[in-house]
Amino acid sequence: MNRPARAATGAFVVIVAGACAGNPQPGDSGYAYNVSDAYAAEFIVDAASYTGSMTLETAVGGMVTGSMSVTSPATITGTVNGTIAADTLTFESNYEIAENGCTGIVTGVGVITTGGDAVAGSMDVYDACADQTLEGSFDLTR
Prior knowledge:
Elements: H1 3-21, E1 36-45, E2 48-58, E3 63-72, E4 76-85, E5 88-97, E6 103-112, E7 118-127, E8 132-141
Antiparallel strand pairs: 1-2, 1-8, 2-3, 3-4, 4-5, 5-6, 6-7, 7-8
């Protein structure tokens, strides 16, 4: 009498496991909000525009790594670390300004478009030389 109940339970577990396997998570192939490759970047801080690029890669589990390079109006480089949850990228980048050696930290949160072709959001920039935090925004497009 217990045998049909076990068979039904086993079939249910197989169906549920199969359904979960069909839903890619951040970093999995086919996840709609992974970020990868080089993005043209525009950062707006204190009404000033800074342009350059960000190169990002999403690993399994939604961990994001990469680099940031601003080329105008100054040369600024940094490493990027972050995470993806649903359609949102949260990141942090330690940076250095080549011309004066100043360093700082950019933290940002932005919404990723379906397909990962663009990310836009808000950011805070802590400038260690001035010991101040400025608010800004960013746009990344591939």
